[in-house]
Amino acid sequence: MSDRHVGQVAERVHTIVADIFSSLDRILASVVACYRASGSFASADLAAVRPEIFACLSRTHEVVAGAGVIVAPGVLADRRRWLEWWQVPPEQDPIFLDVDLDPESLDFYDYTAAEWFAVPERTRRRHIVGPYVDYGGTDTYMLTFTAPAEVDGRFLGVVGADVRAARFEALLLGVLAASPTQITLVNAEGRVVAANSPRLPAGSLLLDPGSDRLPLPEVPWSIVTSARDRAISPL
Amino acid sequence: MLDHVSQLPKAAVFAPLDDGSGRVEVVVRRLAEAIALGLIADGDQLPAELELANALNVSTVTLRAALAALRERGLVETRRGRGGGTFVLAPADPSTARLRRRLRELSTSELREIGDYRSAIAGTAARLAALRASADNVTRLRQFVARLDAAASVGERRRADGRFHIEVAAAAQSVRLTRAEIDIQAEVGELLWLPYGEAVDPQEVVRSHSQVIDAIEARDPDRARSLTEEHIDKGIERLMEFHWRLVASE
């Protein structure tokens, strides 16, 4: 096992994640400013946050597939629930994500129960969900990064960014391929975010993570190492 | 010379082979596959016989037999005299570079999903075929496997294998499963049958398909399904290995 390779993977993960969250911090600052500036905070006021959302999408071009603000129920004066969420299809302008927010409707998008909303609401800390099948909005295998927005202790909702699992993995391919031994990045439930063994595609569940588990700071992920080679058998 | 080979792929391509039978065949496959994946480029010179035999942990007799088979397949040529040796002749198939790129760019979750979906469709088709196939259906299935067995080119193999899977779904009497199987074959057939880099050894495919037909004929739906799923898992795992070797070769 090589600590050097593990260190390189950890560092690369840290850089990618820090980059995404620093983009989210700018959106967050814009939401807070917008909230403070509005007398009665309404959905139309969130138009002021759009430049930061678009900037996040273009700055992290080809990494972030969607970004925006999800407002906690009761915060806006005119809407009980609201998503100011924009997606960028490859080589196109951002598209507003239109979801059904009518609780009476069959397709009601009850985001308050979603992990990417509920966890930052409860812990008031950043969170990463996934990889998971996002069938509500994009039909994509996705990672969702969220951070809580609060002002004077009042929870306003979350700011967030979607990153395609395939795209995230592609950013790690180089450091993963450089390691002769098996390195697996797993989330809190032991699901593979990225690994370098053909037996462990992203999305697999690592049932027996063993003892060589390095928790990463500030993210709900760990790196699991194994003395096994990568199982890229000659035949 | 050989800077391609001397980098990372060398570890995988020239790693010692396990003991076992059919070593000539194993050496042939591994080298053919490395050529198909572009890990050894057109015009590259292979290491000297003794060196290569040592690296692969086979005897020089085995290695010579393997090189003779590769020459017969037109994948290497041996030049005599000064500056001589064994050189790679990569197949001049323009689609190979595209397929390599595609296999390299697919993410592991995308490859896994291809397998998951194929398993769901082909596994269910095999199960239902065991419950519904007529004697005629079984005869047709055996014909496609015979065609696969007799196929002389990778294109013929791919078509015969694709038709086999489509016929299983048709024998299941399901238009929807058949439609899905046709789509799957169009999408991944070319990856599974990379020229000289088949995801599963053609002889093994013939054996495995024959066993599935036996299970269908014996009206054993569970066995038909599990054999089909195993076969598909094996193919996808090999594509993942190819994917990682291509990543490592950059």
SSE blueprint and pairings:
The complex is a heterodimer of chains A (about 240) and B (about 250).
Chain A: H1 3-37, H2 50-59, E1 64-71, E2 82-87, E3 95-96, H3 115-123, E4 127-134, E5 140-151, E6 154-164, H4 165-177, E7 181-187, E8 192-195, E9 213-215, E10 221-229
Antiparallel strand pairs in A: 1-2, 1-6, 2-3, 4-5, 5-6, 7-8, 7-10, 9-10
Helix pairs in contact in A: 1-2, 1-4
Chain B: H1 3-6, H2 9-13, H3 23-36, H4 49-56, H5 60-72, E1 76-79, E2 85-88, H6 94-105, H7 108-132, H8 135-150, H9 154-171, H10 175-192, E3 193-194, E4 197-198, H11 202-217, H12 221-248
Largest sheet of chain A, described in full?
6 strands, antiparallel
Number of helices of chain A: 4
Strand content of chain A: 25-35%
Based on secondary structure, the structural category of chain B is mainly alpha
| Biggest interchain interface, per-side counts | A-B, 25 and 26 residues
Overall residue-averaged pLDDT value of chain B = 86
Instruction: Give the CATH architecture of the largest domain in chain B.
Output: Up-down Bundle
CATH topology of the largest domain in chain B: Four Helix Bundle (Hemerythrin (Met), subunit A)
Number of domains of chain B: 2
CATH topology of the largest domain in chain A: the name is Beta-Lactamase
Low-confidence stretches of chain B: 1-11
Largest sheet of chain B: 2 strands, antiparallel
Overall mean confidence score, pLDDT of chain A = 89
| DSSP, total strands of chain A | 10
Mind explaining what this structure looks like?
The complex is a heterodimer of chains A (235) and B (250). Chain A has 235 residues and is of the alpha+beta class. Chain A has helices at residues 3-37, 50-59, 115-123, 165-177, and strands spanning 64-71, 82-87, 95-96, 127-134, 140-151, 154-164, 181-187, 192-195, 213-215, 221-229. Chain A has 2 domains: 9-164, PAS domain (Beta-Lactamase), CATH 3.30.450.20; 167-229, no CATH class. Chain A has 4 helices and 10 strands; from the N terminus they run H-H-E-E-E-H-E-E-E-H-E-E-E-E. In chain A, helix 1 runs antiparallel to helix 2 and helix 1 runs antiparallel to helix 4 (165-177). The two termini of chain A are 23 Å apart. With 250 residues, chain B is mainly alpha-helical. Chain B folds into 2 domains: 3-88, Winged helix-like DNA-binding domain superfamily/Winged helix DNA-binding domain (Arc Repressor Mutant, subunit A, Orthogonal Bundle); 95-248, Up-down Bundle (Four Helix Bundle (Hemerythrin (Met), subunit A)), CATH 1.20.120.530. Chain B has helices spanning 3-6, 9-13, 23-36, 49-56, 60-72, 94-105, 108-132, 135-150, 154-171, 175-192, 202-217, 221-248, and strands spanning 76-79, 85-88, 193-194, 197-198. At the A-B interface, helix 4 of A face helix 2, helix 3, helix 7 and helix 12 of B.
